[in-house]
Structure formats: structure tokens, C-alpha cells
From TrEMBL:
PANTHER family: PROSTAGLANDIN REDUCTASE (PTHR43205), PROSTAGLANDIN REDUCTASE 1 (PTHR43205:SF7). Belongs to the NADP-dependent oxidoreductase L4BD family. It is an enzyme of class 1 (oxidoreductase). This is 15-oxoprostaglandin 13-reductase. Residues 5-102 form the Oxidoreductase N-terminal domain. Transmembrane segments: none annotated. Keywords: Oxidoreductase.
Length: 320
């Protein structure tokens, strides 16, 4: 037997998330496998903002929390995945997983060389693909354009800003602490970074993007913050709606307001997305991100901001 520990959703999310929403459980997994089956042990798990929206993220009360993980095969009767194989799968917050249909349940890890496997869940995982597809496919940035990113120091926002810089854009980021803003400018190469708790959005954009000159806005937060940014958009500006973090703890859906006249006058394109719409071309994003990481990670002649960095706040989940 293999002992599996898992965090289950004990109580549906409503308002602020607390420890009462989760429960640690154990289950035994038989190691007497049928042909084609295997057992994988988690190496890395993901904790992402999208999980907050509950059933839409696959989280059902009584079930283990959903999400991706990188795992190592520890018992196998599958010739394609011998013991020691590294795989990626949507197994959620659990230490061990019985895989009965490898073709549908798991993917082999990309060849990472000496890069950390955790990148498969970060810059090459859901956050990375959200940044890659959500920004490039919707905003379609052009060299010399001005890009605003909210939640810029988060997992997705920080990657959007770096991709925008690689595309030759001027990048303006907003984050919640001075330390995060310093990181955005010094390490990631953002042209401007503002602490939205200290500097009003209108004031910041009048300085960084005067005369309503924002071409692209990648929105992670929603709320009144986004309403203000929309008032600084250029004619034919593009807005990619990735998240609404400012509303995730609300117990009722926001109803507005939105600056509809400015949206009409500036002929803005505003598009929301769920990243899985691009799942059929997922490999395109993975390869592009891996190539950028490998090409820009080394060498004294490569500016620090050009070395693709993936850094985010980590939530520790105790499975010991």
C-alpha cells in the first residue's frame, strides 16, 4: 500500500478563504497494479488564483483541491513510464496518484536540462500560458506600444511584462508594495512601476502614458482600478481581461460602473478569456517560453531584465 495525503475542499468558498475551507485526509492506494497502471508521487504542486473561483476550477466540496503537479513515477506497470519518469498531470493537492489511463491523465515532462522542474508549472505551466496566449493573442502588441499590467508582480503579470519588453513595448506595472515595484523595475525591466496603494492610477498614467496613450492593458484585478485605466486608453486600444482579484472575496457579483462612452469613443476591444481555449496549441506557448528562458538566462552581455524570471508568492501546503 502507498499512503496518500490530500487536501480536500471541506467548505465552499464564500468571502475570505480560511483554514476552515480545507481538510487534510489520508487514503491508501494499492500498489498491486494492472498492466498499464502506475503510481506517481508529487514533486511540485500549484496554488493559483484561478482556484479561488471554486467549481469552475474543478473544485467540489469533498474532493481534493484541483490543480497541476509535477510528479515522479514510483511504481509502474507501464512500459512508456518506468519508475523514475517525470510527468505532469492535473492531480491536484495530493501526495500520490494512481494513474489508470496514462494517455489521458499524464504528460511527459519537457526536456528541461539543468533548469528547475518547477518551471513546468510556472513560466511553462498555467501561469505562463495565461501570460503568453492571453497577452499575445488578444492584445497583439506591436513594437513601440505602451502596455499597462495590473497585478504586475504576480505569477501572470510579471511574465506579461517581460514578454511585452521582449516585444519592444514600453511597460507600466502596478503592484501593492514598494518592494514589488522596485523588483519590477530593477529585475524585470519595467519602464514604470507604481504602488497603487500610494499613487492614484490617474496620476500615475498621466505621468507614464500622457494624453491617453495606453495601447494595451492586461487586467488581473478588475474593479475601479480597471475603470480608471480604461479612461487612459488610446484609439483602438486592446484590453485582455485575465482576472478580477479585487472582487474574488465579494459575496455578490459587481455590477459596474464602466466608462461606456469612453469605450465607444476610443473604439476599444475588450476581451475576457479562459486560457484553456488555446489548449490545442498549448505546445506552441511551452516551446516559446522554454526557448526564451534558455536563450536569455546566461551571459554577462544579457541585461538582467532580459533573463526571463518567474517569481511569485508561495503558499505553503503541509502534506507531511
Amino acid at each position: 500500500m502507498v499512503l496518500c495525503k490530500k487536501w480536500v475542499l471541506a467548505k465552499a468558498f464564500h468571502g475570505k478563504v480560511t483554514a476552515e475551507n480545507f481538510r487534510l485526509e489520508e487514503e491508501d492506494i494499492s500498489d498491486k497494479l494492472k498492466d498499464g497502471e502506475l503510481i506517481a508521487e508529487a514533486v511540485y504542486l500549484t496554488v493559483d488564483p484561478y482556484m479561488r473561483v471554486g467549481s469552475e476550477a474543478g473544485n467540489v466540496v469533498g474532493n481534493a483541491m484541483g490543480g497541476e503537479q509535477i510528479a515522479k513515477v514510483i511504481v509502474s506497470k507501464n512500459k512508456q513510464y518506468p519508475v523514475g519518469s517525470i510527468v505532469r498531470m492535473r492531480a491536484g493537492w495530493r501526495t500520490h496518484t494512481l494513474v489508470t489511463d496514462a494517455e489521458k491523465q499524464i504528460q511527459r515532462s519537457a526536456e528541461m536540462g539543468d533548469l528547475p522542474l518547477s518551471l513546468m508549472l510556472g513560466a511553462m505551466g498555467m501561469p505562463g500560458m495565461t501570460a503568453y496566449f492571453g497577452f499575445l493573442k488578444i492584445c497583439e502588441p506591436k513594437e513601440g506600444e505602451t502596455v499597462v499590467v495590473s497585478g504586475a508582480a504576480g505569477a501572470v503579470g510579471s511574465l506579461v511584462g517581460q514578454i511585452a519588453k521582449l516585444k519592444g513595448c514600453k511597460v507600466i506595472g502596478f503592484a501593492g508594495t514598494d518592494e514589488k515595484c522596485d523588483w519590477l523595475k530593477k529585475d524585470l525591466g519595467f519602464d514604470f512601476a507604481y504602488n497603487y496603494k500610494k499613487v492614484d492610477v490617474d496620476t500615475a498614467l498621466k505621468e507614464a502614458a500622457p494624453n491617453a496613450s495606453v495601447d494595451c492593458y492586461f487586467d488581473n484585478v478588475g474593479g475601479m482600478f480597471t475603470v480608471k485605466v480604461l479612461n487612459h486608453m488610446k484609439l483602438f486600444g486592446r484590453v485582455s481581461i485575465c482576472g478580477s482579484i479585487s472582487n474574488y472575496n465579494d459575496t455578490s457579483l459587481p455590477t459596474g460602473p464602466l466608462p461606456f462612452f469612453n469605450i465607444l469613443k476610443s473604439q476599444l476591444k475588450i476581451e475576457g478569456f479562459i486560457v484553456l481555449r488555446w489548449y490545442a496549441i498549448w505546445e506552441e506557448g511551452e516551446k516559446a517560453m522554454l526557448q526564451w528562458i534558455k536563450e536569455l538566462r546566461a551571459g554577462p552581455d544579457v541585461p538582467k531584465w532580459k533573463k526571463i524570471t518567474y517569481c511569485y508568492e508561495i503558499v505553503f501546503i503541509c502534506l507531511a
